Amino acid sequence: MTNNMRIFTGNANPELARKIAASLDMPLGEADIQRFPDGEIMVKIKENIRGKDVFVVQPTSFPPNETLMELLIMIDAMRRASAERITAVMPFYGYSRQDRKDQPRVPITAKLVANLLVAAGADRLLTIDLHAQQIQGFFDIPVDHLYASPVFLKYFREKELKDLVVVSPDTGGVKAAYAYSRELECGFAVVAKQRRSSEEVEALTLVGDVEGQTAIMVDDMTTTAGTLCSAANMIANNGAKEIFACVSHGMITEAGIDRLKDSPIKELLVTDTVPVRKSDGFPIIVLSVAELLGEAILRIHENRSVTSLFRL
To answer: Domains (ranges, CATH) in the chain?
Structure first.
C-alpha cells in the first residue's frame, strides 16, 4: 500500500520526519530546498509524484515565517507536479495563539494560516495538540487532530509516581487536565493567571488541593516558561512535594531555561514536534511522537479510521 505514498520534509524538523519514515520502513522523498541570493525560497521535488499520496512534514516553529512559507511553496510545487492528494503534517500549528478577536483591530492569524494552506493546495491537515480546538473549524478540508497525551501518560505510568494531582497552569487547559486526571485516576487543580505581557505572567489563585502531593502540570506549548513557573511557584507554596511539567510543543528559549532553573519544577517533559533547545543544568526530557504520526499517516493513506489515535 505504501508504494503509492511519499513522505517529504522541509527544514523545520527533518529529524522527526526521518523517524516517521523509519517507523513506516520507507525512505524520505527527495526535495531540493534552496535560497535565492535575496532570501527567497526555491523548491524542486526531485522525484515523480504524479498520482501519489503525498505527506509533507513541517511544523511551523522557529523561525515561523520561514517554515510556514517553505511549507506553502512545497505544497504548491507538489500540486503543480500532479500529486493526487497532499496532506500537510504540521506537528505544531504555528500562529495559533490568535484564534479569536479578543481586542479591537487584531487579526485572527490561525484562520489566516488555514486559508493560506488551502489556497496553496493542501487537501488535508494532520496536527497534534492545537492551541484551541476551534481551529479545526477554520478549515473546509479534513483535519486529523491527534493528542500527545498517550506518550506522556506512558512515561508517568512507568515512573509509578504516588499521590498524584494533575494541574492546569491556566484556565484554558482545564479540559485537558481533567482528561489526564481521569486516565491517571487522580485529582486535578487549576491555576488562574493574568498575563501582563507576552513574557510576563502572574498566577492569581489556585483552585484545588495539592498539599503533600506530586503535581503534574499539563500545557500545550511554552516558550519563556512564564506560565509554567508562575503556576509552579503557587503550587509549591501550597504544599506540593514534587512538581513535573509536560508540554506538547517545547519551543523553549534561553530565558525560559533560566527561568526553569530557578523554579520548583523537577522535570520538563516535551515531545519532538519541534526541535528542542539543549539545556545545561535543567532536565528536559524529550519524548518522540514519530510512531504516533507514522501510524496516523498510514491509516490516512489506507483510508482507515484514526479515531483510536485520538483517545487518551
So the answer is: 2-147+290-310 (3.40.50.2020), 149-287 (3.40.50.2020)
